Amino acid sequence: MERNQLLSDIASELARVREAFDKPTLRLLDRKWAPFVLAVFKSSFSRDRRSVACELLHAQVDAYLADLRSTGVDAPEKTGRALCVQWMNDLWLYREVRDAGDGSEEHYSLTSHALEALLLVDSLARDRALISESRLSTIVDTVRHRATEANPDREERVRRLDQQIDELTSERDRLARGGAIEAASNEQMHEGYANLIDLIQQLPSDFKRVEESVAAMHRQIVNDFRGEERPISEVLDDYLAKTDALMSSTAEGRAFEGAFTLLRNDTLMQGLKDDLETILLHPFALELSLNERRSFMSTVMLLRKGIDDVLTQRKGLTTTLREHIVNHDVVKDRELELVLRGINRELAVWMQTAGPRATVTTELMPGTLEVEHLRERFYDPVAHLGPPALADVSDAAPTAPSLGDLRLQGGPLLEDLRDALVAAFGAGEAASVGSAFNGFGASLRRPVEILGLLQLAAQLNASTSPAELESFKTIRPDGSVRVFDVPRRTLTDDDMAALAAQNLGSQHD
C-alpha cells in the first residue's frame, strides 16, 4: 500500500515538473543558446527601455552576432530577423504596432516569461544573503498583519490594535523626552536595500503577466463573439457580463485590481517617493552606483508605468469589441448564410448524377459589366445655386489707424533719429547719446528707438564705456514710461558728419 502511494506521489510530482519545464520560462533556460538569448535581452531592454523597434532590434542582434564571431565565440548561425521571429514564436518576445508620430511602427517587448528568466539569472549571478533581519522582519510583519485581518474575533483584534498603539505610544514618549535615536548601520541598510530590490525587480514581470492575461482574454472574447450564432442581444449581454468580470476572472486580474486600488492613492504614492529619498540620504547610499540609485528612485515611475500599460491593454480590448459590435452587420451575415445554404443544396443535387472525379468550372468572382457610362447621381438644381450674399457689416468696422499710428507700432525711425542726433550734438545740447535721446520728442523716445540708436552707433564705431551706464527714459505709444540702463556712448565731429551724410544720400558723396 505504501509502495503504491510512493509511486503515485512520484508520478504526480514528475507530471508537475514536466509541466513546469514545458513553460516558456524554463524552455528558455534549457536551450543551448540560452546564455546568448538572455545576454541579448539584457543588453537591448531595460527598465527605462521596455520596447525596441523591430528593425532596430534585428540590426542590434546582427551586430552582436558579428562581434561574437569576430572574437571566436560560438554563436547561432541565423540572422537577427530570423532569431527574433523564432523568439517571438517561443513566447519570449511580443510584437505590437505602436504610433510613431508620422505613422505606425512595429515594436518588440519582452514577455513575462523572458522577464522571469532574466530575474532568475540576475538573482543567481549576484551575491546576496539568503536570510537577513530585514527579510525576516518583512515576513513577520506581513504574517502579523494578515493574521489580524483573518481573525474574526473582535476582542482579539482590539487586543492586537491596543498592543500596537501601546508600543508606538511608548516609543513616541521616549523620543519626546529626548531619548537617543539609534541610527541604522550601513550593514542593516544594505540588507534592507537588497530585500527591497528583490521585491521591486519582480514588478515588471508581474505587470507583464497581467497584460498578457488581458490580451489572451481579448483574443478569446473576440473569437467567441465572431463565432456566435445567437441573436445579437444575447451576445451583447454576454459581452457586458464578461466586461464587468474582466479583471476578476483570472488570478492576475484579481491581484492587479487589489494593487490598483492601493496604488491610485496619490498620498500613498507621494509618501513612498519621500521614503525612497530618505533611504538614499543614509550614508550607505554612497556605496551604491549611480545606476543603482537612479533605478531605486524610479520605483514610483515603474509602478505608474506598469498600471498605465495594463489599463491601455484593457482599453484596447473594450475599444475593439465596441467597434466590432457597431460594425457587425446581421443582415449581410444572414444573406451570406442563405447563399451558402443554396450552394449546398445545388451541390447535393449535382452529386446525385456526378461521378467521383467529376469537376465543374466556376467563376470565383463575377465578370465585369460592359457599360460605357454609369450615372452615379442625378442633376440637383440646389447643388448649383450660388452662395448667399455676404452681410454688410461695414458700419461695425473700427476706425482705420492712421499712417502715423502704424509707424509708432513698427521698428525704429532711423532717418529721424539721425536728424535728431545731428541737431542735438550740433547745438551742443547733448553730452552723450543718452542725454540726446532724453531730449527728443515723444515720437522718438519709444523703447524700440534705443535699438536704432545702438545700430547707428555700431555703424559709426562710436566710443563706448562699458563700465559706465546712462538712463534712457522711454515713452511707449500708450503713454507709459520705462527706464533702461545702456552703456554710455559719445559722438565725435566725424561721427556727426557721417550721420549727416547718410541722411543726405548718394548725391552728396
What does this structure look like?
The protein is mainly α. It has 3 domains: 1-124, Arc Repressor Mutant, subunit A (Orthogonal Bundle), CATH 1.10.10; 131-144 and 188-349, no CATH class; 409-501, no CATH class. 61% of the residues lie in helices and 7% in strands. It contains 21 helices and 5 strands. It has helices at 2-21, 24-29, 34-44, 54-70, 80-89, 112-125, 133-150, 154-176, 186-200, 203-226, 232-244, 251-263, 266-280, 290-297, 299-327, 330-351, 403-408, 414-426, 433-438, 447-460, 493-504; strands spanning 51-53, 93-99, 104-110, 464-475, 481-489. The strands form 2 sheets. It has a 3-stranded antiparallel β-sheet with strand order 1-3-2. A two-stranded antiparallel sheet has the order 4-5. A hairpin with a 5-residue loop joins strand 4 (464-475) and strand 5. Helix 6 packs antiparallel against helix 10 (203-226) and helix 10 (203-226) runs parallel beside helix 15 (299-327). The radius of gyration is 41 Å and the shape is extended. The termini are far apart. 14% of the residues are buried. The model has no long low-confidence stretch (mean pLDDT 76).
